[in-house]
Structure formats: structure tokens, C-alpha cells
Amino acid sequence: MTHHIGYARVSTADQDPQLQLDALAEADCLKVYTDRATGTKADRPQWNACLADLRAGDTLIIWKIDRLGRNLRDLVDIVTTLQARGVGVRSLTNGIVDTTTAHGTLVFGMFALMAEYEAALIRERTQAGLVAARARGRTGGRKPKMTPELIGKAQRMYDARQFTMTEIATSCGVTPMTIYRHIRTGQPAST
Q1: For residues 88 and 61, is the Cβ–Cβ distance under 8 A?
Q2: For residue range 100-127, what is the model confidence (pLDDT) as tens digits?
Q3: pTM, rounded to two decimals
Q4: What is the rounded CA–CA span in Å between residue 98 and residue 102?
Q5: Residue 11 falls in the annotated catalytic set
Q6: Distance between CA atoms of 7 and 17, rounded to whole angstroms?
Q7: CA of 137: how far to CAs of 20, 59, 124, 133, 140, in Å?
Q8: What residues have CB less than 8 Å from 169, skipping those under 6 apart?
Q9: Distance between CA atoms of 114 and 49, rounded to whole angstroms?
């Protein structure tokens, strides 16, 4: 059985999410998760709960695409990860994003190409900066959040089928999306 699951986010505590909630109610969402973010990198606990609740065949309904990702790359990563899980994404006010239709999938593909191009430009600049820094005797780069040990731990917790994605993510100190990117979530092969 497939469901519509809604997600709403307001940027500051004084903004009222009612407009988003009314639109999501009209879209027949079974559940709606709402976050009140106080900053650009604020934790989004309801988003994490929403991710954990989505199942293959479900459709994530959002009011506008800017409620989902902080930038184009973030949006593409989220939608691509959800598509890989068999979850559709539909924006109510920008008919641009609706991965449940052929046209929406095509438009989203163009978004993904633009994000890939933007990421390639950023990589080029970063590599040039790292080369220049190394020439001055400095090293750079960010350490990955998921070490091989944490990936192994997350995979064992997932395989045990006793923990939710949110519990696994909390245990590893990352978001559920990070866990999804690093572990195998397919069914084990039967022998």
C-alpha cells in the first residue's frame, strides 16, 4: 500500500507553517512532518523521522522545492536517494519537481545535470586550491563523517533488523540520509 507523506519546514520560529500544512492536507497526506529550523544548518529531527517513515511506493509531498534542500546539490542528492528507495517526490507549488511523472522525471534529470556541472566546477576550484596549498606546505580537505568502523557498525545494526534508520544514525552521530548513502539496504540474497 502506498501513501502520501508530507514534509513542511519553516525557516524561523516566528514563521507560521499553516499555509504549507493546509496545502499538504489538501494533497491527502497520511502523515505530515514539520520542522522549525532556526538556521541554515539546523538539525531537522522531523525530516529524519520522515525519511525513516518513507517506504518504497510512497510519495513525499512538499509545498515548495526549497523546503527540501538547502541548495541544488542537496536537493538532487535527496531526491536521487529517495528515487533509489522507490519513493517519489512531488512539489505542490512548483510543478517542476514531480518524479512520479515522466515529464517531472525529465525536468529533474536536467536539475541533476546542472547540479553535476556545478559540483564539477566546485571540485576543479577545490583541487586547484589544494594544489596551491600543498605547494605552500599545507594539506586540506574534510575528514569523512563515516569511517569504515562506523559503516560496519551501521551495516550490522541494519542487518539485525532491530533498529530504525533514525536509531542507527543517532548511534553513529550522522543523519539517516548519510546512513543510506553508506550501507547496503537491499534484501539479503536467499540461498
Answers
A1: no
A2: 777 777 777 777 777 777 778 888 888 8
A3: 0.56
A4: 9
A5: yes
A6: 11
A7: 51, 50, 20, 6, 10
A8: 48, 175, 176, 178, 179
A9: 29
Nearest to 78 by CA among 102, 106, 112: 112
DSSP the chain: ---EEEEEEESSTTS-THHHHHHHHHTT-SEEEEEE-SSTT---HHHHHHHHH--TT-EEEESSGGGT-SSHHHHHHHHHHHHHTT-EEEESS-TT-BTTSHHHHHHHHHHHHHHHHHHHHHHHHHHHHHHHHHHTT----PPPSS-HHHHHHHHHHHHTT-S-HHHHHHHHTS-HHHHHHHS--SPPPP-
Cα(178)–Cα(170) distance, integer angstroms: 11
The whole-number pLDDT of residue 140 equals 64
Give residue-wise pLDDT tens across range 32-62: 999 887 655 557 889 999 999 999 999 999 9
Residue 29 CB contacts under 8 Å (≥ 6 apart), including other chains = 3, 4, 5, 6, 61
32: amino acid identity, one letter: V
Q: Are 177 and 68 in contact (CB under 8 A)?
A: no
